[in-house]
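Researcher: Good morning. I'm working through a list of sequences from a screen, and I'd like to move beyond sequence-only analysis. For each chain I'm collecting a predicted structure so we can compare shapes side by side. This is the next one on the list. No need for commentary yet; just the structure.
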Amino acid sequence: MDFFDVVHTQRSIRRFKPDPVPEEALWKMLDAAIRAPSGSNLQPWIWLVVRDQTKREVLAQTVRARFDSGGRLEQMRQRAQKMEDASQRRMLLRAADFFANVAQAPVLIIPCLVGVTSPTADARSLLAGSSIYGAVQNLMLAARAQGLGTVLTTFQASIEDVLRKEFHLPEGAVPVCIVPVGYPDGQRFGPTTRKPPEAVTHWDDWGALKARA
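Model: Good morning. Structure tokens for this chain:
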């Protein structure tokens, strides 16, 4: 695919077919990820690829239990039903469905920061994220180029204790997100709807807009 076609049609996918993801496709995604820049080129990342059904089920059960414990899934569904914007309503309902069954994604990739020192040694800070989130985006774009869907999730923060126990994460490894991967089931790729660049760009001074030539 053309690069700009990939960028303009990448969309968050939350429903996946059970079809296995070819290992070669995963290697291509990982190879694209590690081409991203990082602070001082330290490449402070480890990519944990989870395909094992039992391990995915452990994560799924944990997520479902923690979301259900406070009634959050039902609250998400009720909030969605009240939304006038159909696209926003669908997005929230799909999110609730996904959190109810994370294991539907045949692959879960857990990027971890390890040994980060530049631009900061605080692995849980926003600055540290600059040394890995670009790589995560590369990973997701490479998935889209191969017809695979992904979504950037941050529920790892609520289940980090289980991640550490289940996957034996060392103390210095900090999971920064979880990226489900699979072939879309009932969802289409873009084109995506976004604010135009003219609406979110200032030239030389805040508030100075510029029309396209």
